[in-house]
Amino acid sequence: VAELSSKDTPISVKPDGVQRRYVGQIIQRFEKRGFKLVGLKMLQASDGLLSQHYRELVKKPFYPNLVDYMTSGPVVAMVWEGLNVVQSSRRMVGPTNPAEAPAGTVRGDLSLHVSRNVVHASDSVEGAEREIKLWFEVVEASAFFWIYV
Ligand code: ADP
């Protein structure tokens, strides 16, 4: 098994983004920037997966709504690779609350409300590693690269 790299980060299109047909546009933004897609899958998130993914939020009053939202349809989970991808992708996604997200960010361009903010990106290298391990398995696809499945 290859080692996780701080050059990798998870980015997910949440159920509202999938329902609104934004998967292609969101992938295109990260490809245009120069990042490389190294993992991609569509899945229905389970309550158990979400309680681990959002472990800091399970006590929040909005948590039940967050789970309803995140299980309202499939999620497109991805892993992206590249220079400073954790920080840069988070900047491209924009602040948690779309009302505060500048135009040009994914959330600022495609969403209005914090409870329907279209996309997920990790906010730290430690978080990125933890989330990749939670959502993906890393597979050595050849001597030259690995992919996340
Ligand atoms: P981010 O997704 O930007 O890393 P958080 O980890 O703080 O932000 O929150 C996770 C997700 O929970 C947010 O993306 C959003 O979907 C939801 N959320 C956060 N705060 C609220 C809130 N006050 N009301 C409703 N949903 C929220």
From TrEMBL:
Active-site annotation: H120
Catalytic activity as recorded in UniProt: a 2'-deoxyribonucleoside 5'-diphosphate + ATP = a 2'-deoxyribonucleoside 5'-triphosphate + ADP
Keywords tagged on the record: ATP-binding, Cell cycle, Cell projection, Cytoplasm, Kinase, Magnesium, Metal-binding, Nucleotide-binding, Nucleus, Transferase
Record EC number: 2.7.4.6
Broad EC category: transferase
Sample GO molecular function, one term: ATP binding
Subcellular locations according to the entry: Cell projection, Lamellipodium; Cell projection, Ruffle; Cytoplasm; Nucleus
SMART domains named in the record: NDK (SM00562)
Nuclease recorded as keyword: no
Database matches in PROSITE patterns: NDPK (PS00469), NDPK_LIKE (PS51374)
Single GO cellular component term: lamellipodium
Reported function: Major role in the synthesis of nucleoside triphosphates other than ATP.
NCBIfam families: PRK00668.1
Listed name of the protein: Nucleoside diphosphate kinase
Species: Gadus morhua
